[in-house]
Write a structure and sequence with these properties.
Elements lengths: L7 E4 L9 H18 L1 H6 L2 H14 L7 H15 L4 H19 L8 H9 L3 E6 L16 E4 H4 L7 H10 L6 E5 L2 H10 L3 E5 L15 E3 L2 H8 L16
Parallel strand pairs: 1-2, 1-4, 2-3, 4-5, 5-6
Helix pairs in contact: 1-5, 3-4, 4-5, 6-10
């Protein structure tokens, strides 16, 4: 079966539809500035790197919440505020506010130039769902209105490569894995995770990275989403399952 069989296309977000690292860094610097005004002793001791180390330690200690990056960040900030003398209730309130500061800046993503036009082209014929281990919401970005559903690890209760997010997307689209296509930049977390469930997968390789020798190659490798849209072609399954028959 060719690419015309796909009813559902799921998309990873970070480093697939927008660059991520610089946005996270800016959000964390904004958070540090905010904390510096309210908890200066904490910021005298901790920087971006040590705060990250603290979160990673917390994820190891609390694997049941490790998939929920927002909850991990909030608990980490709460614990550190208490460690530096803030009462528990005050620490919790400040941590809630700190998380909002971080998320406000986290949403300031700028999609790659090809993404908006390509996704809107695909959305006319496919059911598009975003799935991400992160906590950016496309509805608060320039991609508002493109995805019919947005799934993150916190909401699904598990992070990729766990199949839960893919299974939820399939259920929302009302289709089986063979009619689902996943698009992402991570060979294991995206491509292999989707294939293990029976979906097809496309690898987005914007930065000329080598494909892991241990994995079978993806169905398609693209450097931008226009190439994906061209591969899918004009005669494709739409959200209701009907093909583009050219008016016949």
């Amino acid at each position: 079966m060719g690419p015309s069989r796909f009813k559902l296309i799921t998309f990873d977000l970070d480093d697939t539809v927008w660059p991520c690292a610089s946005v996270i860094q800016a959000a964390e610097f904004a958070l540090l500035d905010w904390l510096g005004e309210r908890a200066p002793r904490l910021v005298e001791v901790h920087d971006q790197r040590s705060l990250r180390a603290h979160r990673l330690s917390l994820m190891r200690e609390r694997p049941e919440i490790a998939h929920d990056l927002g909850a991990v960040r909030r608990l980490s900030i709460t614990a550190l505020l208490e460690e530096f003398g803030h009462a528990a209730e005050e620490a919790g309130d400040l941590a809630d506010q700190a998380l909002e500061v971080f998320l406000t800046h986290r949403m300031r993503v700028e999609p790659y130039a090809d993404v908006g036009p390509a996704l809107r082209r695909l959305a006319t014929r496919h059911h598009l769902i975003s799935i991400t281990n992160g906590n950016a919401d496309p509805e608060q970005t320039p991609l508002r209105g493109v995805f019919v559903h947005r799934i993150n690890a916190a909401g699904a209760g598990a992070a990729k490569p766990d199949p839960d997010m893919f299974q939820l997307a399939l259920a929302l689209a009302g289709c089986t894995p063979e009619h689902g296509l996943h698009v992402g930049d991570e060979p294991y977390l995206d491509v292999q995770a989707a294939r293990s469930l029976g979906m097809e997968a496309v690898w987005v390789n914007r930065y000329d990275r080598p494909w892991p020798e241990a994995l079978a190659p993806p169905a398609l490798t693209v450097t931008d989403l226009h190439q994906l849209a061209d591969w899918l072609g004009p005669h494709v399954l739409g959200p209701g399952g009907a093909g583009d028959t050219g008016g016949v």
